[in-house]
Amino acid sequence: MTLKLYNSLSKKKEDLKPLKNKIKMYSCGPTVYDNPHIGNFRSFVFFDLLKKYLNFLNFDVQHVMNVTDIDDKIINKCCGKIKNLELMTKKYFESFKNDANKLKIDLPNQVPFATDHIDEMINLIEKLILKGHAYKTEDGSVFFKIDSFKNYGMLSKIDFSQLSKTDRIKNDEYDKNSINDFALWKSRKVNDGDIFWNSPWGNGRPGWHIECSAMSLKYLGAQFDIHCGGIDLLFPHHENEIAQSVCATNKTFAKLWVHCEHLLINGSKMSKSLNNFYTLNDIIKKGYNVNTIRFFLISSSYSHKIDLNDVNLNSSNSALKRIQDFYNRIFELSKGDVEIDDNKIMNTQLIVDFKIAMNDNLNMSKALSVIFNYIKKINIKLDKKQMTYKESILTLAALNKIDEVLGVIRSSEIKLSKNDKKLIEERNLARKNKNWDRADEIRLFFKKKGIDIDDSEAGIIIK
């Protein structure tokens, strides 16, 4: 069984065939000018899911994700002060890391910041100028010459006859109905204040697109296996990455381009510019725990849009509860014992069927169907007390293996305060005295904190 992924470059599913023993993977990271919204995390959770599944298949993965800490939005927000820039980008990167940790995202091996790689960008721009793919303007800016790369548009398959063309464009983000020479280096302007770097062309800063080319080249080399990103980056950002990188190195750059679709809010794309976004904490405050939110983000195909609303979140919560309740049932029977040979685990029917589904372009709908069908079958055995202790151990081990990919079945470690513990004791006493209203009130208090309290024959289960 070979993993097939949809390649945005060829517009078809392709077998993953690593260039070398290690899979090299690059994904576009956060722009740290504000707190990330849940729409951003749709992509970041997908990158994490893909990497975890590659690890599940025993691939050694080198994952690199950049951090954009210099662009138009960032300069505008910090009012041209380098000290403000450093403080602001550090603050929002910490915010990103905290939310990523809550969502059980394993950060990549390398997370390079753009401002730490200015020299690499300058060197890359110099190569492009030398080869005739870039040119300097009178104000000291440098632009990539699109006409010099005959394969420009190979990723987006855009129809150039339908697009307008001007000489050049300097903004980091621009009209996707235009085809323009784009900025590699932007000369210093008055509004930039003291945010600038020295270069052979004068003071200024890099354009947005050159960042990823320079950092992927440094850490992964001229060719690597997988480039991930949100679908909104396909054009112009990823198209420009290809042009810069191929022209500079004469290599093919990334083999597979894998793009994650938008998360919608009431049918519209979630965006800070549209002021219709939620942060992770906003969703948690509505009463949903982080496992439910992660499950919602991964439970549909990454190539399909998903709509964030209470109906879909509640549906995800119910589906996940069914899986977790089953897991807890197996855990109690097996007493948590998972001392079992790994080969035996990987050859269970549950794992085999899960792999078949996931190898089809990470088909989560099929994979979840496999899990739910298995739950239905085994619950019947459990109800009839026909499941042996040894069978429960193997089942628990298989579920743990699957959760190494999904990251939602086993609850996160919960740290309870002294007050939390007192409330749980109070709830136990309330239940003993049949004070159901107080018991439910305390249970709801914990639910709003993202902690579920369930009652079982063995006592309460906190997750």
Describe what you observe in this structure.
The chain has 463 residues and is of the alpha/beta class. It has helices at residues 38-56, 72-77, 82-102, 118-130, 208-220, 234-249, 280-285, 290-298, 310-334, 342-346, 349-358, 364-383, 389-406, 418-432, 436-448, and strands at 4-7, 12-15, 22-27, 60-65, 134-136, 142-144, 164-169, 178-187, 204-206, 223-230, 253-260, 263-265, 268-269, 306-308, 453-456, 459-462. Strands 5, 6, 7, 8 and 9 form a five-stranded mixed sheet that branches. Helix 5 (208-220) packs across helix 6 (234-249), helix 11 packs antiparallel against helix 12 (364-383) and helix 14 (418-432) runs antiparallel to helix 15.
Morphology call: globular
Determine Rg (CA atoms, Å): 25 Å
**Stretches with pLDDT under 50, minimum 5 residues:** none
Please estimate the helix content: 40-55%
- Count every beta strand, where a strand is a DSSP E run of 2 or more residues: 16
What kind of sheet is the major sheet?
A: 5 strands, mixed
Q: Structurally, how many domains make up the residues? A: 3
- CATH topology (fold) name of the largest domain: Rossmann fold
Q: What is the assigned CATH homologous superfamily of the largest domain?
A: HUPs
What's the CATH class of the largest domain, please? Alpha Beta
The overall pLDDT, averaged over residues, is 91
What are the defining features of this structure?
463 residues; alpha/beta; Isoleucyl-tRNA Synthetase, Domain 1; 3 domains; five-stranded mixed β-sheet; four-stranded parallel β-sheet; 17% strand; globular
